[in-house]
Amino acid sequence: MTNPILSLRDIQRVYGKGEAEVRALDGVDLDVYQGEFVAIIGQSGSGKSTLMNILGCLDQPTSGKYLVNGSNVSELDSDELATLRRTTFGFIFQRYNLLTNISAAENVELPAIYAGMSADDRHDRAIELLDKLGLEGRGRHKPGQLSGGQQQRVAVARALINDGDIILADEPTGALDSGSSAELLTLLEELHNSGRTIVLITHDPKVADRADRVIEISDGKIIHDDGAKIPEEAHQSGLMSRRSPSLFTQISESVKMAFRSLRANLFRTALTLLGVVIGVAAVVAMLAIGEGSQRQVMARFESMGANLLFVRPGAPGTRMRGDAIATLTLEDVAALNELDNVIAAVPSRSSSSATLRVGNNDYQTSIEGVSELWPQAQTRGLKYGSFFTEKDVQDRVGVVVLGTTVAGNLFDDVAASVGEYVFLGGAPFEVAGILEEKGATSWGQDQDDVALIPITTGMMRVFGSTYLSSVSIAVDDTDIIAQTEESAKSLLLARHGTEDFQLRNTASILDSIEESQNAFSLLLGSVASISLLVGGIGVMNIMLVSVSERTREIGVRMATGARRSDIMIQFVVEALVVGGLGGIVGVSIGLGVCLILAEVGMSIFISALPAILAFSSALATGLIFGYLPARKASRLDPVAALASE
Ligand code: ADP
Ligand code: MG
Prior knowledge:
By secondary structure, this protein is an alpha/beta fold. The protein has 20 helices and 20 strands.
């Protein structure tokens, strides 16, 4: 005597508790043998679907014993149940339960993906099955493009692809017209003739008549059973794939599915991405701007040399407003020049833009008033002529020293310009000399676009007042620059009676720049993190929506043999794809903004690190915020998921 392939003993299935308790199955005993064609009939609500879900291991009985091929289902964990579903059973549902985003052939392939069949094999097999079921050339159609009868045949092909022994069909003709119903029943008969075991659920006695054995169920109890007619020859399954797909297959399939479902909701996907995109683009662009401006300022101060001290008017901590504070005078400069270790203390005062004129040539530049010590402090020589003298400064003589850019714009022959006159505000200034060329700084400022006049002459004729905007002090021995700074400070304190000036050296200026740049970077970092956080919440939100929207899909996947981990991986991968896409688009936009700003003349420093960092955070955002929805999806109950709308 052969053993039954399915064996139920005293199965109870109770829904709800207390008052709301429903006893959907109440002590069912049933044996199904290999190769049988069984129809289960009963009124609506009699417990047929409940029984079928238990038979297909989508649901577990409240009590009783269920053996599949001799193994006790209640002792299997969820992965083993998934394996059993995809190797032993093929499901056909009343509502077809095809995934609408993917083609007919891909629907058929689904259980084979979870069974680890190679892409070529499963595609060939899907097409072969579709051909056999009269769907030649329909493999590429989406379910929506097929009739009900055709969709149900796609579902049959899906039930067959893993070559499971048992086909479970729950009201498969329920949604079909009579012609399609008849075709489907013939198909089931053929499958039965080829040796498969078929359990068909229906409320229609005419449909049940096609089966060899009819079982009637009412109020959760079997009230009639024709009894088993054990066939001599049973179906030998050709291909029992008990393998699991490799992680690579799993992930590449998930990535494919992710793109599909994201494409199916393009607008929503775009909105979700926006948060991540803005966050990433902000990080990339802001860091490049921050780094660029830091490098620019650093380069400016480094080019000044390490032996300079600067004095500016205004109490420490106040904003430097240059000549608006009338505390720094030429007498201060004279006293500073008397200090030890001081090579030259040079006063400075600049005009905003002024017009220089020679004949009909006009040139706009900024005029700087300095003392005769300027070349010493700046260590810059002359190309032609000489710098103005101490006497020129004392006597407020109208002389000017020009950079080559200025001279080139005013004179046809720069070499012959020494001794010529330049008009500034109607007054003639004799050209004393032309400065050595120095070229542009690393941040693009032309150091030859200068016009220097004696500070005293400037105070009288150009600036209109007698105080200074800064004093730069060149020291001899930089090792004792701190002491020199101290003595300069006490000197000015003694002269002013109050600390109404600021004294810095190049090193301390660099330090404070770095400090403020770091604070700036921290600020940028927090802004960026917040936008990524917001982006992440967007991702989570959309994934949660996606999970509840696709509950049915998840149910179908579980029914066709997906394990919890398969579902989990799929949703995590989807979130990662969202994060990754957001990252790529964000990095591109960020770099684009940088290039535009650089084109406009802003100093930008683009490096790989912020881009990589931002992209990784986008991925991490996807992962972290995708995890919860993915877990929710993987914990869904297959029966409840399938029943959802
Ligand atoms: P059939 O498929 O024969 O129409 P079902 O197996 O779907 O019947 O349902 C049997 C009984 O169990 C019905 O009374 C139904 O209301 C109840 N039932 C089915 N599923 C649930 C559920 N998830 N929660 C509560 N009651 C349920
Ligand atoms: Mg039902």
